[in-house]
Amino acid sequence: MSPERFARINEMLDNRQPDLTVLLDQVHKTNNIAAVLRSADAVGVHQLHAVWPESAMRVSGNTASGSQQWVKTLRHQTVTDAITALKADGMQVVVTNFSPNAKDFREIDYTKPTAIVLGHEKNGVSDEAVRLADAEVIIPMVGMVQSLNVSVAGALVLFEAERQRRATGMYGNRKLPEDYCQKLLFEQGHPIYAKACRRKGLVYPAIDETGQIIAPPDWWQKMREADPDSPRPERGRQRRM
Ligand SMILES: C[S@@+](CC[C@H](N)C(=O)[O-])C[C@H]1O[C@@H](n2cnc3c(N)ncnc32)[C@H](O)[C@@H]1O
């Protein structure tokens, strides 16, 4: 991996907001799911949630433009399961909904741990989601059409959250666990070694701030035993401890 790409992934990790997420409440069109994923990645959402009772959830690769690699989706069988789990993580649950009880979406404090719920393309959010939510919000509209596309609605709320969080300095300081970040950086920077480690049950070595492996000699030895074809340390690039 080039030093530039390594730096870019590090910067992405520094900006991830593990306490901001989206719950897709039966959103089912693959293009819409992909577009929400892409906006979620853009504002630093680390993990998305989806109520998806069917077997496989599909994402349109073109629309997602690779964001599905960086924002993982956790699937829940029911909206009750999903919201219970989000609340157990200390999230306020904000449902986007056309309702007389809904506030303007800009009135919510998104600097709090927040899950934004988006509803089905035709039926909107489920009654159960509304019942369990802490707040209902609406994006005011003055045109002739009654609603926005769900991914557009999601992007507007997410970027309002981004605006508020940036204003209070919530970007640029790493909140994800360091061991998770190290694991991801190793897998991205050294995919062949990572694969060999997984295959043979070897622990991942540490890497330094430039992405070079910092491993004791016995790690290199075990790697060679595990996989005689594994690449040798590049002279001057792979640092030993
Ligand atoms: C196409 S809309 C669904 C319309 C549906 N007939 C209804 O009454 O909810 C799909 C989803 O987009 C979001 N959405 C679209 N426009 C919105 C708006 N103006 N305010 C809040 N949410 C909106 C909501 O999550 C909604 O469930």
Automatic annotation (TrEMBL):
The gene is trmH. It catalyses: guanosine(18) in tRNA + S-adenosyl-L-methionine = 2'-O-methylguanosine(18) in tRNA + S-adenosyl-L-homocysteine + H(+). Residues 163-215 form the RNA methyltransferase SpoU/TrmH type C-terminal domain. HAMAP family: tRNA_methyltr_TrmH. Residues 221-241 have a biased composition (Basic and acidic residues). This is tRNA (guanosine(18)-2'-O)-methyltransferase. GO terms for biological process: tRNA guanine ribose methylation. Residues 218-241 are annotated as: Disordered. NCBIfam families: PRK11081.1 (NF008295).
